[in-house]
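Bit of a strange request maybe. I'm writing a small parser for structure token strings and I need a real example to test against, not something I typed by hand. Could someone generate the tokens for this chain?
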Amino acid sequence: MKRKLSALKFVRNNKKQVWVMMVAIALTFMTMYIINFLLLTTSESFKELFWEQPKKVAYVSLTPGTMGVDKEDYASGEEYNLAIDTARNKIIEDIKKHEGIVDATLTQTLSVGYQGIVGDVGYDFPLFSKEQIPEYVNHMEARLIEGRMPEGDGEILVDETILKNQKMKIGGYFNEQNFGQTFKVVGVLESEYLVCVGTPMGYTNSGWYIVVLCDEANSDMTKLLSDIGIIPTENDTIFDAPDWADMYRTMVTEQIDAALFVILVVVSIFLAISILVAYVSFMRSRVNEYCLYTSIGYGRKDVYGMIMREIFIIFGISIIIGAAIAVVVMICFGTFLLEPLGLIYKYFYPNHLLRILAAFAAIIGLLQIPVSVTIGNIKTIDMIEE
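Reply from user aminoacidic:
Good idea to test on real output. This should exercise your parser:
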């Protein structure tokens, strides 16, 4: 009975050539996964803000028309403004009575930015009276881990992640480049929802909103408002769970996935060309070897099996080496780059890993072309003599 042709002989006898190829494949795999890791850090970091925070707090700003107030019906601006305040207060009271609503307050807000590896996002947070802040902190499942609660005007509590990301510190001024030395950071919060909150300082703000504290089941403000007889229009401003979820899909995940796909395709094409050139060279230099095998009784199928085992060994070891390097690099990036920037990350992305492995499988499939051509051209010992 014939012994199976060894796939390790070529690997052992051509260490330099094989290792050059394996290093190239390993580094390519590592680079592709690290790019995924870094870009997807933005998705991970923004996820809590886009998906989770809006399930607990929403922001609503309605036009007078939506509230049923027409300027033409009032003789003076004072009467008109009073009618707006009356209608708004009625809507706020109706919102409070709705199932799943903890509180609703018309208040000023401030904006804060959150910078990812690629792109950034800004969001508003409320400026409450100091008496309201503990309720808000508890509702958002946050806790004070450093500093103190606001006691005077213009004092801000900042989530620890935002504090790192925006390079702020206790005792410093909040978002000084936009608000100057108006608001002071007095405490740090630990939360899952990037919670910030503070007290107002005069009328320095990013806008006025009805801030609605809600549960997840009642976080769709358009539906909630329709339940109390208010139909929002495109002129109204609503930041709620459906709105943020839609922005997350269109502005974050879809764009990052598209960028990663393009990168994967481009890198795969260059890798495929390099591997094809290398393997064509390998197989040309081994024509006599393949002829010898067929001359001593092995069939073309045996030679094909040996070549494919060689390919799988080279790719398999390369991917393992690349994965090991990637783990080390990711740990270093996470510890020394991402954590100091206040970014959220994880190491394992199975869907994207499968996509990279699929690209490598496609390259192996592409290698079938030169392998099949070579196998088809194998002759017996007489080719060596020629």
